[in-house]
């Protein structure tokens, strides 16, 4: 089965849908939040990011691929740090502006439209960086990590999550993961090697595949539970395609073909 349209990098369309109450309800069920995010970071994992970044009120955080503000706005809210949210879709950034105002955080939030592979910031600007499930949606992975290093001060901390194929898969299963997963889930070498080449030192790497699979299953269960209202919203054929796509991803996780990992790296 080929991926449905949502997997073809139509983030602007995804963020437009994320504004709707029916979609926010699904997000709450799957991830425990309602920011209109497109990553698989749960509320509990966001609190873990706060700890792994050692984030406090004196830090300056850059959240790349921040979309509508998840999880960067929550990280800033919990830590009282300053945060810069960067992404390309303007409709997502408009949602982030509204959410920052609703949370009383406007003075501590900068919102910038730009690309993670050509960051519009000076060298050594940030001491904390985060990005959630962004690298698996980009072909220029090394360039992205190099740009992150350029804008990071020495000893800056970076946290990111990424979805990737398991190592050592036979070719048919590897091809299936490339078809089922995010649009650029494939990686040449390993993320540890890419981080080293870009000037980062790996401090920690955790397997968060089980949590990812659980979030997917909650999402699928929510689709079945609210099938009529979602079909009225999206159209029955599109809803079925989206549900089957998520079920294919769950199957890839269950058989051990697809993983999600969370890295902490320090600017060397």
The named CATH superfamily? Vaccinia Virus protein VP39
Would you identify the CATH architecture? 3-Layer(aba) Sandwich
* Unreliable sequence segments: 1-8
Question: Could you please say which CATH topology applies here?
Answer: Rossmann fold
Q: What radius of gyration results from the CA coordinates?
A: 18 Å
Strand residue percentage: 15-25%
Layout of helices and strands, plus pairs?
Elements: H1 11-18, H2 21-31, H3 43-52, E1 60-64, H4 72-79, E2 82-87, H5 90-102, E3 109-113, E4 126-132, H6 141-150, E5 152-165, H7 171-180, H8 191-198, E6 200-207, H9 209-225, H10 227-234, H11 236-254, E7 258-267
Helix pairs in contact: 2-9, 3-4, 6-8, 9-11, 10-11
List the main descriptive attributes of the protein structure presented here:
globular, 268 residues, Rossmann fold, 11 helices
């Amino acid at each position: 089965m080929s991926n449905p349209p949502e997997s073809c990098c139509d983030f602007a369309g995804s963020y437009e849908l994320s504004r709707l109450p029916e979609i926010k309800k699904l997000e709450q069920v799957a991830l425990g939040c309602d920011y209109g995010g497109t990553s698989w970071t749960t509320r509990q994992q966001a609190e873990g990011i706060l700890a792994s970044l050692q984030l406090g009120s004196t830090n300056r955080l850059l959240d790349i691929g921040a979309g509508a503000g998840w999880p960067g706005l929550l990280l800033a809210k919990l830590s009282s740090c300053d945060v810069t949210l960067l992404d390309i879709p303007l409709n997502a950034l408009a949602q982030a502006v509204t959410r920052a105002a609703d949370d009383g955080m406007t003075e501590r939030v900068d919102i910038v439209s730009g690309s993670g592979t050509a960051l519009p910031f000076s060298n050594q600007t940030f001491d904390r960086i985060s990005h959630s499930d962004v690298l698996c949606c980009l072909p220029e992975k090394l360039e992205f990590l190099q740009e992150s290093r350029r804008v990071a001060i020495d000893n800056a901390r970076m946290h990111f999550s990424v979805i990737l194929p398991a190592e050592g898969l036979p070719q048919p299963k590897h091809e299936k993961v490339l078809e089922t997963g995010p649009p650029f889930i494939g990686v040449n070498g390993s993320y540890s090697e890419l981080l080293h080449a870009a000037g980062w030192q790996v401090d920690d790497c955790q397997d968060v595949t089980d949590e990812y699979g659980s979030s997917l299953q909650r999402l699928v269960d929510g689709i079945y539970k609210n099938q009529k209202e979602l079909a009225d919203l999206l159209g029955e054929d599109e809803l079925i395609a989206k549900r089957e796509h998520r079920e294919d991803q769950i199957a890839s996780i269950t058989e051990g073909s697809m993983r999600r990992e969370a890295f902490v790296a320090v600017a060397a």
